[in-house]
Amino acid sequence: MTFHFNLREIVTATMVLFAVIDILGSIPIIIGLRKKVGHIQSEKASIVAAFLMVAFLFVGEEILKLIGIDVNSFAVAGALIIFFLAIEMILGITLYKDDEPESASIVPIAFPLIAGAGTLTSLLSLRAEYYVENIIIAIILNIIFVYLVLKSSAKIERVLGKNGVSVIRKVFGVILMAIAVKLFTTNIHGLLAT
Questions:
Q1: Is the per-residue pLDDT at 17 higher than 80?
Q2: Which value, in Å, is the radius of gyration of the alpha carbons in the chain?
Q3: Model pLDDT for residues 121-167, shown as the tens digit of each residue
Q4: Which of 59, 72, 106, 117 is most buried, judged by most C-beta within 10 A?
């Protein structure tokens, strides 16, 4: 078994997941949950989110085959979702909003806050273009960062302030939009060729 480690793929996949998970943008939600519930299970939420993401990376394609959808079609759909997520981040608008979670257990944080529909769609879109081992490294790097943010969310908000968090969201929104366009153009060729 040969591994195809590629630094460029790892960096790109890490940035895509970082932007889609948008844990910094979720700091206000996390702080709100902490005030409501008192304690957030950072370790549990991070481990469950990592498990969900890796499992979907391997089983997601099989699920698609089962319902008769090829990876290129899913990647194009994923690119469109990523594009709309980017628009939300850049313009500061909400196109889609989940119900606000009631408790800080695994359910609201691990899923859908970290490993939500956008993240899972992005994973399959990335799988259409990159080697699995590079995506797994990207998942691990993001989960480490997510864990650190969950552990120190109040401190981060104090340091960055509302404006700092907003600037970071907008910058990653632009990066995410560029990646969505690239994913779309790459996979639309595969769709049109069939």
A1: yes
A2: 17
A3: 889 889 888 999 999 999 999 999 999 999 998 788 788 887 887 88
A4: 72
Are 160 and 3 contacting, i.e. CB atoms less than 8 angstroms apart? Answer: no
Phi, psi for residue 177 in degrees, rounded to 5: -65, -45
Q: Return all residues near 171 (Cβ < 8 A) that are at least 6 apart.
A: none
Q: Which two tokens stand for residue 34?
A: 């902490």
> CA 100 from chain center: how many Å?
18
The two three-digit tokens of residue 45, written as one number = 């939420």
Identify which of 182, 186, 164 has the alpha carbon closest to the alpha carbon of residue 86: 182
Rounded to whole angstroms, the Cα distance separating 30 from 27 reads: 5
Give one DSSP letter per residue of 126-187, joined into a string.
HHTTS-HHHHHHHHHHHHHHHHHHHHTHHHHHHHHHHHHHHHHHHHHHHHHHHHHHHHHHHH
